[in-house]
Write a structure and sequence with these properties.
It contains 14 helices and 20 strands. The protein is an alpha/beta fold and 448 residues long. The protein has three domains: 41 residues, no CATH class; 255 residues, ANL, N-terminal domain (Rossmann fold, 3-Layer(aba) Sandwich); 127 residues, ANL, C-terminal domain (GMP Synthetase, Chain A, domain 3, 2-Layer Sandwich). The strands form six sheets. Strands 6-5-7-8-9 form a five-stranded parallel beta sheet, sandwiched between helices. Strands 13-14-16-17 form a four-stranded antiparallel beta sheet. A hairpin with a 4-residue loop joins strand 10 and strand 11. The model has no long low-confidence stretch (mean pLDDT 92).
């Protein structure tokens, strides 16, 4: 990271001091970084250990959060001290039932808002376990051994990790004690009903499984869990407290039991104060309020159920597929394709084709599997039978890798832009940008 740090510091003259914490090397070479000091020298003897707490207004800026970059260049959102604190306390204390005696871990990195969410657990007095590295090293049981060793009560993870365990047939409950574990929390992307079932069948049958979704934009959740109501497979339990969440149809009317755009009809404390370098608030308004005036449109495609009041997420609304004008959430396809052991991962996009749109399905195969005509036929049949004929892709193509952001969100938009001959604006936001090279290489194949 030091080369990147040097480049950033040289480009930002207002930076006064860079404090470098030793990590890979005990004493890294920081001579090339302007105004840099090692952490141990920063805490030199003779300096006061007293922490000075400044009283600031509720809306005092706390930090800039950068969105994940799933749909384009990351947004630079300035968020407030009071708004973030009250929102995190609500979600941790009331939705997650976090208490002072709990020990919580979340599989996250400082580049993702779940890091900020996790750190706020300290305000409750709970203990935090920080994990850095590959959750599958030295073996698939690494995280579950950590849960037992550290007596973790709340384990936070992603749909990607749960699907990986499910695909490997890994059964933590048969190999570990997990007696302290009371809650599994999941976010990052939508999890299928089968994923919910896996948690209760093969991890622990008496945990509170809390699937949550919101965004970096509000540093929290629009929909979350509740320890006092039932969990229904494939549904987030309820709108987050204080969030006036609805699903709007194409006419801007609230709908139930039908897919629509996720909106929030009233302000929330953790909404951004403003975007950095956006003095007229044009970028802010364009990002959230350009579709429904004075109504926050978040960009997710959801269904709210009238009987349970639960919510199912179907993916980003800008990645919604529209073959013959029929709106299809990509998660509807993923939930079915994930059931094939031969498929390690997949991504579906819409290609403009003959004055319409057709679906292309790209699959990353499991080790040893091949994309035979027989497997393609089984995938198409499953999509036709379990969803509809409109869900069946025109082409199924195997690819070596699928693009993800640094916080492990699948990036349909970049592939969609490539296939439809548009520029990709969020390459730097990807953890594996070279994965896009293959899609560029096969452009001539999918255009035939």
């Amino acid at each position: 990271m030091l080369a990147d740090v040097k480049e950033v510091v040289e480009a930002v003259p207002s930076i006064k001091k860079v404090v470098v914490v030793s990590y890979v090397n005990e004493k890294p070479d920081i001579t090339g970084i302007p105004d840099a000091v090692l952490y141990k020298d920063f805490l030199a003897p003779g300096k006061s250990d007293d922490i000075v707490f400044e009283q600031v207004p509720f809306d005092h800026p706390l930090y800039i959060m950068f969105s994940s970059g799933t749909t384009g260049k990351p947004k630079c959102m300035v968020q407030s001290v009071g708004g973030i604190l009250i929102n995190h306390m609500k979600e941790l204390i009331l939705h997650s039932d976090l208490k002072r005696e709990d020990t919580i871990i979340y599989m996250t990195a400082p580049s993702w808002m779940m890091w900020n969410w996790l750190i706020s657990s300290l305000a409750i007095g709970a203990k935090i376990v920080l994990f850095d590295g590959n959750p599958g090293y030295p073996d698939t049981g690494a995280m579950w051994k950590l849960i037992d060793d550290e007596k973790i009560t709340i384990f936070g993870t992603s749909a990607t990790y749960i699907n990986m365990l499910k695909g490997q047939g890994f059964k933590p409950k048969d190999l570990f004690d997990l007696s302290t574990l009371k809650e599994v929390c999941q976010t990052g992307s939508a999890l299928s009903a089968e994923g919910f079932g896996y948690v209760y069948q093969y991890i622990k049958n008496d945990v509170h499984f809390q699937s949550i979704s919101g965004g970096t934009d509000i540093n929290g959740c629009f929909a979350a869990g509740s320890p006092t109501i039932p969990v229904y497979a494939g549904q987030l339990q309820a709108p987050a407290l204080g969030m006036k969440v609805k699903a709007y149809d194409e006419n801007g009317k609230p709908v139930y039991d039908k897919q629509g755009e996720l909106v929030c009809e009233a302000p929330a404390p953790s909404m951004p104060l403003y975007f950095w370098n956006d003095p007229e608030h044009k970028k802010y308004n364009d990002a959230y309020f350009s579709v429904y005036p004075n109504i926050w449109r978040h960009g997710d495609y959801v269904e709210i159920y009238s009987d349970t009041r639960g919510i199912t997420f179907f993916g980003r609304s800008d990645a919604i597929l529209k073959p013959s004008g029929v709106r299809i959430g990509t998660a509807e396809i993923y939930n079915i394709v994930d059931g094939f052991g031969e498929i390690a991962d997949c991504v579906a996009i819409g290609q403009n084709w003959e004055n319409d749109q057709r679906i292309l399905l790209f699959v990353k195969l499991s080790s040893g599997a091949t994309l035979s005509d027989e497997l393609k036929d089984r995938i198409k049949k499953a999509l036709r039978d379990k969803a509809s004929p409109r869900h069946v892709p025109a082409l199924i193509i195997d690819v070596p890798d699928i693009p993800y952001t640094f916080n492990m969100k699948k990036v349909e938009s970049a592939i969609t832009n490539i296939i439809n001959c548009r520029p990709v604006t969020n390459r730097d936001a990807l953890v594996n940008p070279k994965s896009l090279d293959y899609f560029e290489d096969i452009l001539s194949v999918v255009q035939r």
